[in-house]
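job 3f2a | input accepted
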Amino acid sequence: MAIYKNINSLFYIFVTTHLLIWTLVPSLTNHNLPLDTIEALAWGSNLDWGFNKHPPMSAFFTETFYQIFGPQDWAYYLLSQICIIVSFIVVFKLAEDFFDNKIFSLLSVLLLEGIYFYNFTTPEFNVNVCLIPFWSLSVFYLWKGIKHNKILDWLLLGLFAGLGFLSKYLFVYLGLAIDVLLIYMIYTKRLNLKCLVSFVPFIIILLPHIIWLTENDYVTITYGLLRTGSEEASIFNHIKHPMIF
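job 3f2a | predicted structure (245 res):
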């Protein structure tokens, strides 16, 4: 029991240290906010259910912090780290369900900290950072839903999946993987149809953005397609671009 308390203490010391370092260092050394953060603030000053490049969640967050803290650069570095810390806590809790040895729960988070996108790039609050907590929360409540099959867990899965999709369309990859898994679990009778209740909050959350998309000629989707270079698609691009990289 004592070792479990020690691991919990180490974990909270670690996340607090991460929060302080990655909030204070850019606050003290950067002369300006990163471009993506400034862009999100600009969107937040004219909030809508979508924008030409991305769905609206990152703008909602920055505008909320602006209303609380005003034009204080450190607040937006803090916002980024809150997103990262939430994902660390969720992964820690998820790992506790997986492993009998709680040391592995701590190691799971420390391994994440070793990934570039959980440390060096995190001061720039953008749609990628905004997506991270909802990605981990969706996986966590998918796991709890499969394990316990409780309505609340399925509703929370739908809620966080919807917020993840409103953060960045890249969430569609995780969403499709979840759908395939649920179909398989229902087909093999390991789950009943109770899990489908997750679609209720998911659709409710997405509906305003879908309406906005239809009213704005699906500008966010067409922008994403243009960024892929699909207008000049060629099999040789799969050779040329990696070589250039």
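job 3f2a | DSSP finds eleven helices and no strands in the chain.
job 3f2a | closed
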